[in-house]
Specification:
Layout lengths: L1 E3 L3 H7 L33 E3 L22 H18 L7 H14 L1 H4 L7 H13 L7 H16 L5 H20 L4 H23 L4 H33 L16
Antiparallel strand pairs: 1-2
Amino acid sequence: MVNRRKDSEDLSKEGSAKHGHHGSASQEERVKEPETLGRDPSVDDTSLVSEVPSLLRSIPPLCSLTRKSSPLVCFTVVNVIYSYSFSLLRHNGDLSDDDIMLDFIGTLLSVSGALSTTTVYQSTAHALKGAVRAASDPLLGGDEGVAVLAMEATGKILVGDGGKRYSLAALSHLYRLLGKVRKLVTEEKDVRKDAFNAKKKCLFLAAWVNENGESLAKLSAEVMMEYNQHLKEVNEVEEISKGLQRVWGGNRPPAKKKLIEEVE
């Protein structure tokens, strides 16, 4: 969804040239939008280009996949699209190499409880909380700055252009990537199984979004509320940290002095 450019000068030279390809869909099926889906304050807006992947050619009716869908499915959509956004931002939108694609899927499954487990989310906040924590964990190679930015990108994908296209595009992109990964790891049964299960879930979620597009605007608003709240908390922690460092005179508190010292 988000392709970073090294500088705006290169972008202006390219003009209307295409940036990357997603599948072999016809030009009519590909929709490009000028709006960026994630805004990094440290990067000039002119150096970001957004491209919406083509939708799946055939999305089955929801009734063919389940007798009755749970009202909590919408929160699973939030979790998956957040994990997709974070994984793309972490890899700068570049999935041109097979090894990078495998790493992308590894990141996706480690962040998304919805795709890697049977977790059921009760709210938008619940759907984001675990994913943001996993995305921010330095032990898992996470990045707190990108984790927060991915929340904003998620809200923008959900609201899209006022419809369901962006959300369907994200799920369609994931569906295809998971299919490619299964072909790459023919001898790794566990990875193939995880990718197969995640691919089935993406198709189900695409079917749900296709018939419940009117719910996406509300989900987007809830995601942006969580984003603003999280950003506020991060800033407050940063201010407290800076205050302590001024008192300490450094990054760490001074060593404790001995209250009682033996005198010979």
